[in-house]
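Entry:
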Amino acid sequence: MTARTTVYLDYAASAPAREESFAAERAYEDSPIAGANPNSLHSLGREAARALDEARRDIARCAGGGFRPSDVVFTSGGTESNNLALLGLSRGAHQRDRKRTRVILSAIEHDSELDVTGVLRDRGFEVTLVKPGRDGVVSRATLEDALGPDCALVSVMSANNETGVVQPVSELAEAAHAAGALFHTDAVQAFGRIPLDISQADAVSLAAHKLGGPVGVGALLVRGRVPLAPQSFGGGQESGRRAGTQDVRGALAFAAVARACCGSIATARPQVSGRAERLYQRICAEGTGIVPTTTTTVGAERLPGMVSVMAPGLDSQSLVLGLDERGFEVSAGSACSSGSLDASHVLTAMGIGRDQALGSLRISFDERVAEEDLEAFALELVSLVKRTKARHQ
């Protein structure tokens, strides 16, 4: 029996591991520091600490925006980075200025931020959600209308994890700072795909596995002048900002993948954007019954390998399972919300009706996915949608 060929198109959930990640992990395992605690005072501990600091330098350099190696706090991934940012920065801002009792988030943030709102309220903070326009962009004017002297923190993601829409981070950060608030951005999806617009950000969340690094390692970049109240305790690691023995192997693999991806943005981005544009043209052609979720599908305002579409009147979960049977792996939105039976909060916040949003699909990939695989996927998706609509008529 011939094994089924699978085309994986869910890179926004987790990208396949890259050889650079494997090579860095093998080099670590073959080195004298394998297993050594980087917080120990003996020779191997100090050598492990130097390796960890080198990973900080690489990640800070790749991220840009004027962040320094000492600003890099290693975490277990994007979720922890976002949790630490929201809880730690809001608390730090409030400790510095007691009138700062409100946090502003965009309504299209990842669940690792939106699900923190209850904790923030329990800690005495009011939470305000600002919505994007129909184009998926949170405008400066919208944010300025919500800002005030009571705002401690603003958090808006660099690029949305469902639609791929890039946000005007510098403009939003400038508005937040003008009101005396801190600004954080979740750059988990954008890092290594596009140059980050973070020179005005106070803190930035990153994760390795979105690029093809190991699962379970991420970073929160926090400028040294920014007040961050720690949220875990039991050690002085990460300059007292995040307790726990660091994963040196994971950090080195993260740094290796960051170097590879950030170093190839200039060539990979136009290549992947071109493939995304052709995919949109194939699956959103007249008569397919499939439409884009946003008014802008490709270009500087979008992540290069994120295709976001809807089949109005159909159920996205049925489409995902139907495509899976045919060897194509996509998602209905954020993988962290894959168990939800409701419409995407991102699309509804953009003003898309629930019936339309229930038929949404997210197709995500990078330069490692071949053009012919995308062509085969397009044919299968269009055929599946037409057959499904015919059965419902």
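The mean pLDDT is 95.
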